Amino acid sequence: MNSITVKAPSSTANLGPGFDVFGLALDAFYDTVTLTKQKSGISIVTTDNIPVIPSKNTAGIVVQHMKKKFKIKSGVQIKIKKGVPPGFGMGSSAASAAATAIAFDRLFGLKLDDNTLVECAGMGERASAGSIHYDNVSASVLGGFVIVRTKPLDVLKIVPPSDLRLVVAVPKIIVPQKKTKVSRSVIPKQIDLSDSVINLSNAAAIVTGFIKKDSELIGSSIKDIIVEPSRAHLIPGFSSVKKNALKAGALGVTISGAGPSVISFATTKSNLTKIANAMKKGFRTKKTDCIVVICKFSNGAKTI
Ligand code: HSE
Predict the structure, then answer these.
(1) Is 125 in the active site?
(2) How far apart are CA 142 and CA 101, in angstroms?
(3) Is 262 touching ligand 1 by the criterion CB < 6 Å?
(4) Shortest-distance Cα residue to atom 1 of ligand 1
C-alpha cells in the first residue's frame, strides 16, 4: 500500500462533570487525512489555514512521533482537509491527530492497540492545546463515549444509546490563540470536597446512563458545578443559551470541551429544532450568530 485516507470525527469533551475524563465522538464534522509514502522527509499539503511546517502542525507532529517510535524510514506526505472548526471546543486538532495516527498505523501495517493509537494521537493534540489531555483524541480514535484514565493511559469505550441526540451551537466569535490554555487558566486550582462529591455523583450517573443505554439519565446528569461556572463568562450569552435550551426541552446543557461551543443533550423524542432555535436566540441576546448542528454519536475514525 502506498497511500491511505482516514476520516475522523469531531468530539465533545467533559460532558459537564467529567472534566478531562469523558469524551463523546460526534458525527457533526470530520477531518480527512491522506498519508502517502514518499522517498524522504515529511511534507504537508493543505488548502486550509493551518501551519505546513511538520513540527508546528498537529498531523505533522503525530507523523514525526510515530516515525521515530516505530523506526519507520520512509518519508510521508500528509494531505489534510479540515472539516472540524478549529478552536471551538469540537475536538478539531484531535480529529486531525486521530486520523493521522490511524492512517499511519494502517499505511505501515503496525496493528497498534487502541491505547497506543490514542497515545500517538495525543502527541499532536498536546502541541495545539498546550497540555496533554486525551478526552477528544480518544473519542475521535475509538468513537462512542470514552472514559480516559492516565498513568498509565487506559481508555474505556461504551457504545452510546441509539436515541441520544446532541444539539451543538458554535458561536461565530473570535477565539483567542491558545484558547484551551486561556480557558484552562480560569478554572479553580482547588475545590471544595463537597463540590467534588456532587460532580462525581453526576459523572457516575452519566456512565450508568451510557451502560444502561438510558439517554434521559445521561442528559439529566450533565451537571457541572466546578468547571462550567468558572468558564461561563468566556462565552457571550452562555446563561441565556442554556436557560433557553432547557426550556425548549433539552435534558442537559453544558460547554463543549473548553468552549466556546455549547452542547445540549436530548433524545429522538425531543423537539430538536426547537432546542436549536432556542440556543440561537440565546446567543442573539449578545448579538452573536452561531452555527447549530443536530447530531448523534460517531463510531470514530475510519479509512475511506
Ligand atoms: N478537557 C479539556 C478542557 C478539553 O476542558 O480543557 C480539551 O481536551
Answers:
(1) yes
(2) 12
(3) no
(4) 20
Output the pLDDT for position 12.
98
Reply yes or no on whether 216 is catalytic: no
Distance from C-alpha of 160 to C-alpha of 215, rounded to nearest angstrom: 8
Which of 11, 12, 20 has most ligand 1 atoms within 8 Å of its beta carbon, as the pocket-test mutant? 20
pLDDT tens-place string over residues 62-113? 999 999 999 999 999 999 999 999 999 999 999 999 999 999 999 999 999 9
261 lines ligand 1 (CB under 6 A): no
- Residue 224: what residue type? D
Q: Which residues contact 117 (CB under 8 A, 6 or more apart)?
A: 98, 101, 102, 105, 141
Let me know: does 257 contact 12? Beta carbons within 8 Å: yes
Label the pairing between strands 22-38 and 75-81.
antiparallel
Q: Give Cα 260 to chain centroid, integer Å.
A: 12
* Number of neighbouring beta carbons within 10 Å of residue 215: 23
Cell numbers placing 29: 464534522
Report the nearest-CA residue for atom 4 of ligand 1.
257
Q: What cell does 261 get? A: 461551543
Determine which residue's CA is closest to atom 3 belonging to ligand 1: 258
Give the nearest ligand 1 atom to 180 CA: 6
Which of 15, 115, 35 shows the shortest CA–CA distance to 77? Answer: 35
